[in-house]
Amino acid sequence: MIMIYVLAAIIIIAAIFSITQKDLILAVVGTSAISVILSIFYYLLQAPDVALTEAAIGIALSTIIFVIAIKKTERYEE
Amino acid sequence: MNFSPVHFIAVPLFAAFLIPIVGRFSKEAVKLIPGLVLLYLSYVAISLYPIALQKPIVEIIAGFKPPFGISLYFGPLAAFLVTMVMLIGLVIWLYSYKFIIREPLEKYYMLFMLVIAGATGIMITGDIFNMFVFLEITSIAAYSLTAFLRDKDGAEAAFKYLLIGSFSSTFYLLAVMLIYANTGTLNIADIAAKMQTVPNQPKIFIMILFLVGFGIESELFPLNGWAPDAYSQAPSPIGGVFGGIVVKASTYAMMRFAFVLFNFHSMFELILVLGVITMLIAEMSAMRQQQIKRMLAFSSIGQMGLIMIAFGVGTDASVRAALFQVFNHAVIKTLLFLAAGYLVFHSGSKKISALDGLGHNKPITSFFFALGALAIIGLPPFSGFWSKLYILTSVAKGGFLASVVLILFSGIIEAIYYLRVVGRLYFKKDVSQDNVRRTPISGLVAMGILAVVILYVGLYPHQIIDLIKPAAHDLVDKAAYIKYGLLH
Amino acid sequence: MRKATAIIILALVGYYFLSVFLTVPFGEKRNNVGQYYLHNTVRETGAVNSVTAIVVSYRGFDTLGEVTVLFIASLGLGAILFDKKGKKRRLQHASLIVRVGAHMLYPLIVLLGAYVFVHGHLTPGGGFQGGAIIATGVLLMFISYRSFETSHKALTYIESIAGMTFVLTGLSGLIWGNSFLQNVLPLGEPGRLISAGIIPIIYIAIGFKVGAELTGLLDNMLKTIKSD
Q1: Residue C7 maps to a domain
Q2: Average pLDDT score over residue span C102-113
Q3: Which residues of chain B are within 8 Å of residue C79 when distances are taken between CB atoms?
Q4: Is C228 among the domain residues?
């Protein structure tokens, strides 16, 4: 039970970290961290299919697409 | 194998998966495939129409009866709208055959078929999550088609459309979640039967979410910021697809939910007020435009506001008038976009000032544009006259006299900016030097078919009205929808 | 000033959202369509994994739509990036540890992905998950080796044939049964690999399709980077 609160707090901290960062690569890493914790949450809520999908797509593929987009534009927000 | 409504979805999807393989062998065959698919589907729609008029066709998918499986509801309203969509799609395909010359061609035709399949799916489905899937198909194909010309403006317009359209999908999904949590089922007829048990606070919230979600796609104020850019930066036939097909599907979905699920008096008044504001702001903005396709986009938004006013009044007569205007606007606006496409092509620039005097140089294309302009203003003997007349009389009978005055006022503004363009076409000196290129036959035939429809409906409106009466009845009658939808 | 008003409006909207969503009780047994699915899955579809049965059998039409959405996304990307691609990826060569590790892990990852989508009706997972895992494996190879190429022609063929298999399976339900996507193969014994009628066929087709699509998407995007 305590683990759920700790994980929820980590998600909120990672989200705030993503929004306030100026370096966009770190912001994308924050989003990816949210995906990791979210997939653990889905597993704890007894939905293994959703956890597998979130892990496969949210952690690897979504991040790489954002990184490619950042590489072609600006790395630092103004 | 008999015809059934699932062909409208399965055949375009199969053809879209087939095109890359065919494209390896022959490019010309790729251009023909959407035409064959749309011809076949028009034939299916026309042959299913009489059956749907007697009793709505409810087709079960995957063999599990609703509410445990998905069902398609093909009633008179769906038959009317789907036949309209198929015929407009066929005309636009014919026009695109020679108009689209920019690579990659096969992806254009695939996306074109998929956007039509998605819009058709929204119109025939009877399941609320299935409608979300088709909304996604339509939206994402529309985003890709907006950016098809790959210039900087196109990319910006597509990005704006994508950002705002994602809100539409998200709000719709939140509404579906709340409905499932409160009623426990996903079939629209079943939800309608159980809607009384839902307490008021979630119900109002769900209604707002649906209004925002569909309002973004139907270009209501203030959710239509994406529309002028998307219409003007997409290729011209795609402007016709957006204005004639996609927007109509979204409006159908919003009104179906309004009549079957909610039936709040206040929701209809809200739609009416939003329609009035949309119409006024769009028509006044259209007057100030310098580019022809942006002007047509704002005019399209204004016409959607007019249709919303007619739906918002909520009486039987006004719903019939609204459906008539839906049909007319789809045909006329498509004709205007197709004609504008070739006018822009011949004059070489998107500005209205570059169109001076094209009436002498390119008489047939300019004639079609002028015909469309006169039809949409509402002059007899074209079809736009009848539908506007019906809207005005039914809104007046509903008691909303202020709206009647505002509709007439915006009609005058419309007349000003359209006749301004027509005047420039015919009464100014020719500034373009383009004497060599001619409009291809396929484009002229496509525009000609639409013009013939406009004239025919204008001279013999009763034939269309006989088809609209059962369609309007289908939209308004909640008990019949529940009865047929749950297979009783 | 604008930031403050934006935050206040967002807080009010968020409070309204929260108050409506909190009226839904969380985690207790409610009377909905889901209960029917849980009780009747094995008997009606032969699949042991309920989620797979719902995704492919009860609501297979939605899955067809979702596969199409992914197809459109990959198509749109290909259309927009049509003439912006170079011929080769111009990333740096990765370090030795990454290269050796990728070389060893790549076949294992592809095998895991194939296992996930073939056993979709028995274990958690399915076509989408398996396809995404395969695409992640290919991504690992793309990042590590500059010379790893995937044949664009083969990917297009796999996508198209897999998509057509799905629609043809549905149409076979129309021809030999009563409705589109109806199960026309015998259900078999639940728990065995060959069971549950058309569910393995559809999920294998989806697995191939999603894997090919995501690989093509990543290939398209990685080729547009010009190295500096």
Answers
A1: yes
A2: 93
A3: 104, 107-108, 111, 144, 147-148
A4: no
Over the stretch B360-396, which tens digit does the pLDDT of each residue have?
Answer: 777 888 888 888 889 888 888 888 888 888 888 998 8
Determine the Cα–Cα distance for residues B14 and B23; give it in Å rounded to an integer: 14
Residue B433: the pLDDT is 61
Q: Give a yes or no: residue C213 inside a domain.
A: yes
3-state DSSP assignment of residue B481: helix
Q: What would the pLDDT profile of B235-275 be if each residue is shown by its tens digit?
A: 889 999 998 899 999 999 999 998 888 777 778 888 888 89
Provide the chain C residues 173-192 that lie in CB contact (below 8 A) with chain B. Answer: 173-175, 177-183
- Identify the bridge partners of residue B58 per DSSP, sorted by sequence position: B73
The pLDDT of residue C27 is above 60: yes
CA-atom Rg of chain A in angstroms: 14
Chain-chain contact of A64 with C218 (C-beta, under 8 angstroms): yes
3-state secondary structure of B360: helix
Mean pLDDT of the region C115-137: 90
Supply φ then ψ for residue B351, to 5 degrees.
-80, 155
Look at residue C170 and tell me if it is in a domain.
Answer: yes
Give how far B208 is from chain C: nearest CA, Å.
11
pLDDT in tens, B91-101: 999 998 888 87
C224–A61 C-beta distance less than 8 A: no
Say yes or no to pLDDT of B341 above 60.
yes
C159, B110: Cβ pair inside 8 Å? Answer: no
CB contact under 8 A, C139 and A49: no
Number of domains in chain C: 1
Q: In the prediction, which pLDDT does C163 show?
A: 92
Q: What is the least distance, in Å, from the CA of C177 to any CA of chain A?
A: 30
Does residue B110 contact residue C42 with C-beta atoms inside 8 Å?
A: no
Q: Do the beta carbons of residue B166 and residue C98 sit within 8 Å?
A: no
Contact (CB<8Å) A68/C222: yes
pLDDT band at C90 (very low <50, low <70, confident <90, very high): low
Residue B1, pLDDT score? 60
C-chain CB neighbours of A72 within 8 Å are 224-225
Q: Is C188 left (phi over 0), alpha (psi -120 to 50) or beta?
A: left
pLDDT greater than 90 at residue C193? no
* Domain ranges, ordered by start, for chain B: 7-485
Structural domain containing residue C204 = 2-223
Closest CA to B260 of B474, B68, B71, B467: B474
CA closest to C226 among chain A residues? A72
Which residues is A23 bridged to in the sheet?
A76
Q: Which of C125, C133, C221 sits opposite A65 (nearest CB)?
A: C221
